[in-house]
Amino acid sequence: MREHAELLLRFIIDHTFDEIFITDDRGNVREVSPSCGELYGVEAQDLLGQNVYRLEEAGVLRPSVTALVLTTRKRQTLVQQTKTGRQVVVSAFPVFDEAGSLLGTVSFSRDITELEQLKKRNDQVAQTILHYQKEIEELRTKQVQGLFLPEGKMKKVLEVVSKVADLDVTLLLEGESGVGKNRLAHMIHEMSERRGEPFVEVNCGAIPESLIEAELFGYEEGSFTGAKKGGRIGYFEAAGRGTLFLDEIAELPLHLQVKLLSVLQNQTVTRVGGTDKIRLHCRIICATNQNLEQLVEEKKFRKDLFYRINVIKLTIPPLRERRNEIVPLIYEITEECKAKYKINKQLAPGFVDWLTQQEWPGNVRELRNCIENAMITANGPYIDLPQDLLEDRNEAVREEEIGYHQYMTAIEREFISRMYKKYPSSVLLAKHLGISQSTANRKINAYVRKQGSQT
Question: What radius of gyration, in Å, describes the C-alpha atoms of the chain?
């Protein structure tokens, strides 16, 4: 029986994954696993009979957990750095007889070198990820700056945007018509984790009241005359896990404001003619160019809906209060026009200077319209003020600047006069420009015949 137990012990010592180290009560090595040669740089047969105190002095066991157990007579665990450069975690246990006398120690050692290296590598990867996250955040900030300059009143708006872009919170964008509410909404979407999902833009004021409920919430087959077979999903469902941008939210009829409130509160939508509640996962951004608080007082907008969508309000200042953005916008719009119409024209410095001095009551939309008109109608590779406005500008008192409508009239006069030379009748001119003959005749009388009679 004793021989069987010794054979079993030897088998365990030789084949266990952990290195086993057995000593007597004085610290003399009695048994050791063959793997200790790889860990400690000393073969197993050379360790047998050695004393752990001397091995510790020689630096083979540094420190010796067995020596610590012999001193304290308690279980001990520590990490050793071996001569071979391995890191080993060692747990040693005292062995007592029935009378409580110390017989010796048994220790188990496991090589954790690869684990430590993996941990170090993991820490390096975590640091790298953190570095790239910071770079991504900086790129997002630069993306913001590319659309709106973080200066003046816009700086505070963009600071809030950077904080809420990734939060699933309903946003309300306010500002005059044409200030760039849709651009800001799209930018928030691109800065969020939803940027790979749909961005659905809905103008609540552009959809007929009779259709807006079906367009927003969808409808089931046969729910009304003309309904498509199989029904149709609404904009809320179409947005999926992306962003639904409800522009001109103040134009939403009162009876639909109730349903929208229910949708926002319950995060479910029911199609027209249906009964099933469909779970929503999209983020909602609303926008308006009206004073919603005043509309609430006038009973034209529901107070409960106002509070629901007014969690975070961002007020975009008009372009006249963001004049530092006008020049970048001018060149951005110019490049867009070049790509859209496949034309290569440049803006003269005088024209750019004139653009920057206008009030732009229509904000970015009006600025875009002006530049687009000039890009299409102007002759030659360079776009400047029309000749008559240049003369007026040079001769007039400096304080009297050229107004937007005056400029547009001059542009149209020059364009119609030029086209009339090529198409010298109202019929030909109307056909070429794609306008009615009466409109063509009216413009000829205003810009060509009237000018000729004055000369």
Answer: 40
| pLDDT tens figures, 245-273 | 999 999 999 999 999 999 999 999 999 98
Q: What is the pTM for the complete model shown?
A: 0.56
Nearest CA to 412 among 353, 351, 370? 370
| Closest of 375, 354, 404 to residue 178, by C-alpha | 404
8 A C-beta contact, residue 149 and residue 325 = yes
β pairing state of 19-24 and 29-32: antiparallel
Task: Decide: residue 144, CB within 10 A, 0-12 exposed, 13-18 middle, 19+ buried.
Answer: buried
Q: How many CA atoms lie within 13 A of 310 on its CB side?
A: 15
pLDDT band, very low/low/confident/very high, at 356 (cuts 50, 70, 90): confident
CA distance 15 to 343: 80
Query: pLDDT (tens digit, 9 = 90+) per residue, 432-441?
Result: 888 888 888 8
Angstrom CA distances, 388 to 56, 98, 449, stand at: 100, 117, 17
243-263 exposure pattern, b = at least 16 Cβ within 10 A, e = fewer: bbbbbbbbbbeeebbebbbeb
Q: Is 346 left (phi over 0), alpha (psi -120 to 50) or beta?
A: beta
Listed residue (347, 318, 349, 320) closest to 334, CA to CA: 347
H and E: helices and strands count for the chain = 21, 14
| The residue to which tokens 């030897």 are assigned | 10
